[in-house]
Every structure is written in C-alpha cells, then in structure tokens.
C-alpha cells in the first residue's frame, strides 16, 4: 500500500519531476520536493501539493553538485516526513558541444548532477530502506542511456552510466524488498526541451512550432512528445506491488525512438 509512504523526487520544481510529484501526491504519497529554487518559492510549491492532495510535503534546495549537500538532503527529508521509501533520481542538466570543444567544467557538471548525485542519494537512502525491508528507487535516465546522439558526450555518458548503476543496485537488493529501475524517455514536454527548441528556432530562422516538430521527428518516429504526467504514471506503477519483481530494467517511453 502507498499509504504514508514518502517519496523524495530530485529536480521536482519543474518539468518531469514536478509531474511525477503531482501523480504520486494524488495517489497518496507524501512528497519531498527538491530543486534549485529559492526557499520561499519551493515552499510555495510544496504547500500547493498539500492543499491540492492533502498529503504531507517538504522542500529542499540542496545543490546536487555538492556531495555533503546530498547527505543533508536525504537527512532533512527523513527528518521532515519520517522516511524516504521511494527515491526518484530525476534532476538533470544538458550541455551540447562536440567532444573536442566540450568545456571540461561542463563535463564535470553534467556527470555530477546526472550521474554522481544519483549514486550519493542512493548511498544515503539504502540503509533505511534495507532496515525497513521495502524501497523503490527509480532513476530518470533517457533514451540517451541506450543510444547516442552527436554533441552530447557528457549527457550520453551520464545516462548510460545511470543505467549501469541501476542494474547494480537492483542486483544487490533482490532479497530486500527493494527494486531499482531506470526510465528512458524520448522527448518530454518540459522547460529543458523548450530551451533546445528555442535555440533551434533562432538558429534556423523557424517559428517555434516548426522547430518543435523538426526537433521531435529528427529523432522520434512518433511525432508527439510524452507528457510529464505519463512519466509519473510509470513511476506509480513501479511503486506498486504488481511491479515487485520488476527490477534492474531500463524502460523506454520514447515513441519508438529506440525501436529502429
Ligand atoms: P527541467 O530543466 O524542467 O528540470 C530540471 C530539475 O533539476 C529542476 O527542478 C532543477 O532545479 C533541477 N536541477 C538542475 N540542476 C540542479 C542542481 N545542480 N542541483 C539541484 N537540482 C538541480 O528538466 P526535465 O526536462 O524535467 O528533465 C528531468 C530529467 O529527465 C533529467 O534527468 C533529464 O535528463 C531527463 N530527461 C528529459 C527528457 C526531456 O525530453 N525533457 C528526455 C529524457 C530524459
């Protein structure tokens, strides 16, 4: 049962993470929201969840580039709401350039937020999940955890890395009631993608909708973006009892991007 279970969702002030937070809150989870917002704005988002769904909620703006901040993020979530039963590693950033031009500090930032931060949150949440004999770890990877695209060296490396991390954590916890899975979305309708569309529109002198369709169909056979709430529904299924033997997987939700 999801009753009184607590979910910590990193990067949940926007986009996919916020979509997941709404679906889980509606289903009865208590929620720790997290992201790079000033405390009053983040607290306001957490209050919205409480008002709308009657759940408990808290907010943290720990910067995932700092390992000690991540220990505090997990500790604060456990203190505020009692436990972390579901961990969703969702926060992520993008930077694009060919490898020979890729700024090393951007490589470090993308690997730090998209991969190492997930190791640190898992490292800090597993002991209590193991003691409780129940847990769900869901890593929001990407189709770029399964296949590559040009100019995304750090992102593709981080996402392939998190798929590998997912498998190890799954294997290590098969007898402890804890599953660990990765979700691999194609294009999802979020601010992160809106920024890429606007860049391509400006570069190609296109209007936004033309650039949007060109971006989607350049990679994805189905000419439609996935909605953040659909990722939330998949997370909710992975939290269910029906999914208890589903572990160590990397699940595409990608309009047939990786079917080709
Ligand atoms: P977004 O830009 O809308 O949200 C990113 C979130 O991460 C925000 O809450 C932000 O505050 C947080 N964040 C970023 N840097 C941080 C840091 N240093 N410390 C703490 N928090 C930080 O992005 P989105 O599109 O919702 O993407 C969410 C996840 O889904 C990412 O891991 C992304 O790689 C993945 N993804 C997105 C798509 C897509 O099409 N949008 C596709 C596949 C995978």
Can you offer a commentary on this structure?
45% of the residues are buried. This protein has helices spanning 15-26, 39-53, 67-81, 104-132, 153-172, 191-204, 208-219, 228-239; strands at residues 6-9, 30-34, 57-60, 86-89, 135-140, 178-185, 250-253. The protein folds into two domains: 6-186 and 226-252, NAD(P)-binding Rossmann-like Domain (Rossmann fold), CATH 3.40.50.720; 188-225, no CATH class. The radius of gyration is 18 Å and the shape is globular. It is 50% helix and 13% strand. Helix 1 (15-26) links the parallel strand 1 and strand 2 (30-34). The protein is an alpha/beta fold. Nicotinamide-adenine-dinucleotide (NAD) is lined by residues 11-17, 35-36, 63-65, 90-93, 113-114, 140, 142, 185, 187-188, 190-193.
How many domain units? 2
Number of helices: 8
> Under the CATH scheme, which class of the largest domain?
Alpha Beta
Largest sheet: 7 strands, parallel
CATH architecture of the largest domain: 3-Layer(aba) Sandwich
What strand order characterises the main sheet? Answer: 3-2-1-4-5-6-7
The CATH homologous superfamily of the largest domain is called NAD(P)-binding Rossmann-like Domain
Shape: globular
CATH topology of the largest domain: Rossmann fold
EC number: 1.1.1.30
Enzyme class: oxidoreductase
GO molecular function: 3-hydroxybutyrate dehydrogenase activity
Family: Belongs to the short-chain dehydrogenases/reductases (SDR) family.
